[in-house]
Amino acid sequence: MLGFSFLRCYNKFYMKQFPHNFLWGAATSAHQVEGDNFHNDWWLAEQNHALREASGQACRHYELYAQDFQIAKELNHNCHRFSIEWSRVEPEDGKFDFSAIEHYRHVIANLKDQGIEPVVTLLHFTNPVWFSQKGGWAKFKLQKYFLRFVNKIVGEFAGEVKFWITINEPLVYSSHSFLLGAWPPKEHSLFKTAKVTLNLANAHIKAYRIIHKIYRDKSLNRPMVSISANLQAFEICRPTLKNRLAVYLRHKLYNLYFIDELKRKRTLDYIGVNYYGRNLADVEKWGIKHLLLDTCPYNHHPLRKNSLGWDIYPQGLYKLMIALKKYNLPILITENGVCTEDDNLRWDYIREHLEELFKAMEEGVEVLGYIYWSLMDNFEWDKGFGPRFGLVHIDYRNQKRTIKPSARKLAQVAQSGEI
Ligand code: BGC
Predict the structure, then answer these.
(1) H/E element holding 362?
(2) CA of residue 83 to ligand 1 center, whole Å
(3) How remote is the CA of residue 9 from the centroid of ligand 1, in Å?
(4) Which residue owns the Cα nearest ligand 1 atom 9?
(5) DSSP secondary structure of 157-197
(6) CA-closest candidate to residue 23, choices 173, 145, 163, 182
(7) Which atom of ligand 1 is nearest to the CA of 389?
């Protein structure tokens, strides 16, 4: 009796056992790893020197994917998230490149042959040049082109794919590209940002319905369709009214707006969550811009940081999981990761986030899996190749892959399900 309760106690406090069917994996996105994505808006902006670095050959993953998936297998991953590059599949308006479709067919087959569940993103920040030249996401009527691409791709791969992510981080895209001017098309317009955001929400709703219809027509089991929402842990720096209001508004707008909208339209089968860390609000003056954007410029309430200076805050993941409980939908962590040269920090980051995730699961949050960002070091958008998020180190001079120790530790957890 005593032995049994001791064991129960031990299990409760020390051994954290994830469910046996939990998904363990890592993510990439096409433009960040494939290389030579000639036909998208990022490539064009890179050639025009509008960005710090050009993606160039990136990790040559378009050619080396089989080698990379072998590594994922060796690391006991049972799922893998990647994106299909729209501009490869449809380099010209209405002209589909069948060799690109065949390529992605092989990518999916390669994963499935190894027992790795594909989690497929349909839009991860990049657009075909022809689409952006027509006006891109700032024009409402152009979403029909994205829906045509969705229809094509899902029609091709419905039988092979269960998990779809229509759009990666819609709000990050609209704000970086249309408000902050950091990403192509580098605009600074609040009006356009709002328009793009609504357009993306609408595109998801329609894409969701298209995907489900295709599965129904083919008499396939229901797919799991979502977006990847970028969630941040908004915290106050000083306990002022402005700061409290800022945190409330940011959480409602940045974290929950999309999920609320899509849930209301019944177009989420799960919630894809990308979580990196804390946003410490410190608002100097009244005004919507300050309430939505001001952060503490001093090192108040210091935390460990990644190499881009973002605050590492594992407890935030727990808090967000609890906040999402009200939606009554399963959650898939579609990104969580750290860029650092210190691989011990990477492992601490992963372990601590898994512990917080587990705590939320013990409190009834249904989590389907944990996907680390990223399988390999890659092209970090406007920050170039400097930040290293990968479980696998890439030597960009010769494309040599080297598995980092943190990846091996995560592999043990993926194998045993224990942390
Ligand atoms: C994006 C990735 C990016 C990562 C790290 C996410 O916002 O989906 O493309 O590399 O964060 O910044």
Answers:
(1) helix 343-362
(2) 12
(3) 39
(4) 29
(5) HTTT--EEEEEE-HHHHHHHHHTS--STT----HHHHHHHH
(6) 163
(7) 5
Q: How far apart are CA 391 and CA 378, in angstroms?
A: 11
> Is the domain 25-416 a CATH 3.20.20.80 member?
yes
| pTM flag (> 0.85) | yes
CA-derived radius of gyration, the chain: 21
Is 341 strand, coil or helix?
coil
Residues lining ligand 1, Cβ inside 6 A: 29, 32, 168-169, 172, 230, 274, 335, 373, 380
Q: Which of 82, 340, 373 should be mutated for ligand 1, with most atoms under 8 A from CB?
A: 373
Q: What is the pLDDT along the chain (419 residues), one digit of tens a residue?
A: 444 454 444 555 568 999 999 999 999 999 999 999 999 999 999 999 989 999 999 999 999 999 999 999 999 999 999 999 999 999 999 999 999 999 999 999 999 999 999 999 999 999 999 999 999 999 999 999 999 999 999 999 999 999 999 999 999 999 999 999 999 999 999 999 999 999 999 999 999 999 999 999 999 999 999 999 999 999 999 999 999 999 999 999 999 999 999 999 999 999 999 999 999 999 999 999 999 999 999 999 999 999 999 999 999 999 999 999 999 999 999 999 999 999 999 999 999 999 999 999 999 999 999 999 999 999 999 999 999 999 999 999 999 999 999 999 999 999 999 99
For the chain, the distance separating the N- and C-terminal CA atoms, rounded to the nearest angstrom, is: 26
Q: How remote is the CA of residue 12 from the centroid of ligand 1, in Å?
A: 34
| Total count of residues recorded for the chain | 419
Report the separation in Å between the CA atom of 42 and the middle of ligand 1, taken as the mean of its atom positions. Answer: 15
Q: Which of 273, 381, 383 to mutate to test the pocket of ligand 1 (most atoms within 8 A of CB)?
A: 381
Atom of ligand 1 minimally distant from the CA of 125: 9
Distance 381 CA to ligand 1 centre (A): 8
